Structures
1.
Amino acid sequence: MSSATPLRQLVSDCYEFKAIKFGDFVLKTGIHSPIYLDIRPMVNRPKPLKLLSELMYEKIIASGIGYDLICGVPYSALSVASSICVQKEVNMITKRKENKDYGTKQLIEGQHKPGDRVVIVEDIISSGSSILETVLALRSAGLVVTDAVVFIDRQQNGVNNMLEYGITVHSLIDVKTALEYLVDDQKISEQQRSETIAWINANPLRINDEIVNEWRLLCLENRTTKLLSYEERSRLSTHPLTQQLLDLMVKKRSNLCVAVDLIRSQQILELAKEVGPAIVILKLHIDIVEDFDHQFIEQLTAIAEEMKFFIFEDRKFADIGQTVALQYGKGVHRISSWSHIVNAHLVSGPGVLEGLRSAVQQDGDSHQHRGCLLVASMSSKDNLMNASYPKSAYKWSQKYADFVIGFISQSRVSADQRFLHMTPGVHIDVSGDGLGQQYVTPEEAIGKRGADVVIVGRGITGAADPRGTAHLYRQKAYEAYVQRLSL
Ligand code: 5BU
């Protein structure tokens, strides 16, 4: 038998006082489970409770989590959270379980103020639903929550689920290791262990729908105090293209779109290969390409698939619905057949969106594999878009949310986090081009103006080393996003 580390000892104690049980249990969700974890019996067992709280606190410190307050998830983790707070003299807050109205601050007991950092303490993580419910209440009061410390991870996908909501879970032990300890200590048989593991592997869990809906509502009503992570935004979005784009942004750690305003197809293809690894979108003005043919499109599409980026034709449709439908789907370019993203001005009214959407539907396919950005404000000097224009753009984006994925804008049009904001007029070195273009830096666009994606043209295409320069822009823009998250 292995020597008893404090954690082993704790697992063994938990088995003894039936905080870990084996049998046939019907869970809240109605499914049968061969294992049941519940640390409530620990409430009147001060020794293991003290040990657990010490180990949890060590975990908080070892994980380098910055915090001002500790919050236990009601009810079962309240004892351990209190124990940590009393022993370590940390301020504690609690969330009332009965009150569902996130708008009222009485939901949280204990002194706190917006901006305070809170670490969550939980006993067991299954799907992560209880943790998320607590996180929602805390975030809606302006508290900053990024980490949770848990005793046992049931390994049913809860840790992954939480990542999508911007929460990193640090567990003391996972259930499979706990099972190994119990076999070593001859408390359960090898067969019990392997059967339990088979059941765990076959039963991954999702966050409870009701809580996902509450989270969605909370975000949509803008009661969260800051822009969410791309992961969370992907979960929030209802448009598949937005989800794919946000997921790609996280995967490539890039929020960079390159504007390739070159006039020969070979130049474009070569540049695409150079900058492909650093970008998530390649933006074109297809009407400036002198030697356009569909073979070029096939080649570009192959590069986009291989290097994983989306294609955006910056066509800025602006005519009546009937005309834009033809301009989008027909003619020499047949834009709708290859461009994942297009954009439109709303000067002619929402018929432009009706027309564009109908053109994709006519292709006999769902229009949701294509997305449209509304031009809400422009980077060019003295442009005629007044202050009410972005507001109208937002109004129509909501009505056409199955097709509109966001905005081209110089600042955020709306706090509605379903929509992406992409900002052109970005350059590291210069402030303008002598023809009315006005530039800001990636830090300004992402950090101060709330852009999700920066669009960079000549800053990259005109550089001596486009590949290296694209990486530099990617790094600056992504760092600005990471920085924004930590504010
Ligand atoms: P630049 O080389 O980084 O200046 O290129 C910017 C690109 O973005 C270029 O293709 C413009 O057509 C496009 N653009 C813009 O600069 N400003 C706007 O407000 C809009 C588009 Br909308």
Note: Residues 229-486 form a domain with the TIM Barrel fold (CATH 3.20.20.70).
2.
Amino acid sequence: MDLHLLGWDAHWRELFTPYVSQSLLPGRIVVEHRDAYRIETEPGVRPGALAGRLRHLAERRSDLPAVGDFVGVRLPERDAGDGPAIVEAVLPRRTAFVRRAAGGRPDDQVIAANIDTVFVMTGLDHDFNVRRTERYLAAVWESGASPVVLLNKADLCQDVEHKVAELQSVAIGVDVHALSALTADGVDALAGYLRPGVTVGFVGSSGVGKSTLLNRLLGRAVQATAGVRTHDSRGRHTTTHRELFVLPQGGLVIDTPGMREFALSDADEGLDAVFADLDALAVYCRFADCAHRVEPGCAVRGAVERGEISADRVASYEKLLKELRYEESRGDQGAAAERKRQGRIGAKAIRRMKRDG
Ligand code: GDP
Ligand code: ZN
């Protein structure tokens, strides 16, 4: 395969210069599955494996290659048959989606590399959520890629223009498109982003229409959509054989489970529930506006002192409180009220437990 079709250009050729003399060939990772890879090279697509040296030199997990990475590989000798291409070098990334590990930087993991543009999808049905979309936008900017907001399922919505305007007011400087992946209405507007050599990724909740859109762009069903999606014995989606696709018109798409789920831990609702117990404790602080720092009669600090909760958790909780105050100060009442509601539910549950227990 001509690597230019996969985004290889003067920028990458320049970065690759030092490896030419080591007889390495350039390639791009099209599938990553644990430590096994599929790598597209000029002579063809190959299974890939990491050079021991690369593994040893990697100080952080994020130094190891991910889908989308351009790499330097050594192919097996002609008579050694079709053994794996050995990855000897990873070229510096233009962009990277990084899953932050609880254990800190050494365990941070790159989910996908060198994505130029990310379609942030939200549904114009019940999925529509401005705040979650904002979170996605922040995550995309952090990766170095540029976001484009796609409001899918326009065919199900009566006030499309109103919703577009609502998102445009928070996504300053970001293109917002309404479309229907199902009927193809509005999909033509994406042509400008799907240029040869440009790599696009998708993020958005499950069911928003990512597979439907990808299949439509590819003109064939590579990704099983909900309903016909198969699961393995553990109930997970079965993995596809490929995670980086070349569109008929030349654009590139990276679609991996990791990208799909990216930022969900932050963007979705689950987070608040994690702190429901601390929220409940805070109800017993002497002062209603207790910041759990120096105030007398602070129930949260009391629990830390008794060793009932860790100081780390309280620090994370404080961060959440700060976000809550920020949201309130910006007038994002919906988001703030939702967090409070969950806190109150937590408090009630605890009081009930104390009474019944
Ligand atoms: P994914 O989980 O994001 O990949 O979502 P899917 O592509 O599997 O779509 C989930 C469901 O939404 C499927 O039943 C699709 O047919 C449906 N769907 C996707 N796009 C549209 C759309 O534009 N309009 C309507 N009405 N349904 C859609
Ligand atoms: Zn307190």
Note: The first helix runs from residue 10 to 20.
